[in-house]
Amino acid sequence: MVSEPSLQKMNIYLVGFMGTGKSSVGRLLAKEKSRLESRSQWNFVDLDELIELKEQRRIVDIFAKDGEAYFRKLEKKILNQVSTQKKFVVACGGGIVLDKGNVSLMKKTGIMICLNATPEEILKRVSSSNGRPLLNVDKPKKRIELLLKMRAPYYMQADEVIETTGLSVKQVAKKISKILAGKKYIFSKARGLAAKV
Ligand code: S3P
Predict the structure, then answer these.
(1) Tell me, what's the pLDDT at 185?
(2) Measured from the CA of 19, which atom of ligand 1 is nearest?
(3) β-strands 11-16, 110-116 pairing
(4) What stretches in the chain show pLDDT beneath 70?
(5) From the alpha carbon of 131, which atom of ligand 1 is closest?
(6) H helices then E strands: how many in the chain?
(7) How far is the CA of 44 from the centre of ligand 1 (A)?
(8) Residue 7 contacts residue 66 (beta carbons within 8 Å)
(9) N or C: lower Cβ tally within 10 Å for the chain?
(10) Which residues contact 74 (CB under 8 A, 6 or more apart)?
């Protein structure tokens, strides 16, 4: 079945709260999809890593020196650039969904998949690093709960929501792969678009 060009998808955007595993899952998912579709290569990109590379400084330093609003501008710009690519699994920063334009761009150029986890699990996963400025506070668990509550409606805009608590990276990647195959999303080679058939 040939899908409507206007319904075609190009990329997979992984969104969701900090510590839900977007980067590790994304890396594995790109590998898994490349293996399954032997004739087509999937690439992986992490938007935060790209921002740090372009700015030549860490995200904590961007927040500290220029503030969150400046970071959000960088994030939007880099998403715009990446969205012109095709067959990319894109790990997005946890706050990318707060911008309406970002959400519509992701939906227009790909599938938006949200990874979810409980506050306890998130705390466990993020506590080894101080690289997340929004969680460098006295009571990170309270901050996680508050932000999760505030952001829930934004995350719910995703095409698919995947619960990751208690699952390994491999299990989550497999779960996504299965969902994508089951729903028969078609990924366009042409620039522009694609879909669920
Ligand atoms: C943020 C999440 C971070 C990073 C920045 C802001 C957020 O990315 O973009 O610290 O607002 O949730 P991760 O979700 O990859 O940790």
Answers:
(1) 72
(2) 16
(3) parallel
(4) 1-8, 184, 188-197
(5) 10
(6) 7, 7
(7) 17
(8) no
(9) N
(10) 51, 54, 55, 62
Q: Evaluate whether 143 touches 134 at the Cβ level (below 8 Å).
A: yes
- The amino acid sitting at 52 is E
From residue 181, how far is each of 63, 82, 106, 178, 197 by CA, in Å? 39, 24, 20, 5, 11
- Which residue in 125, 195, 117 sits closest to 162, CA to CA? 117
Q: What are phi and psi of 30, to 5 degrees?
A: -60, -40
User: Which tokens belong to 130?
Assistant: 């101080």
- Report the C-alpha dihedral over residues 137, 46, 73, 6, rounded to 10 degrees: -130
Crossing angle for the helix pair 100-109 and 59-82, to the nearest 10 degrees = 40
Compute the distance between CA of residue 30 and CA of residue 191 in angstroms, rounded to an integer: 19
Q: End-to-end alpha-carbon separation of the chain, Å?
A: 8
Q: In 3D, which of 157, 173, 103, 130 has the Cα closest to residue 19?
A: 130
Task: Tell me, in angstroms, the distance from the centre of ligand 1 to residue 131's CA.
Answer: 9
Structural contact between residues 117 and 20, judged by C-beta atoms closer than 8 angstroms? yes
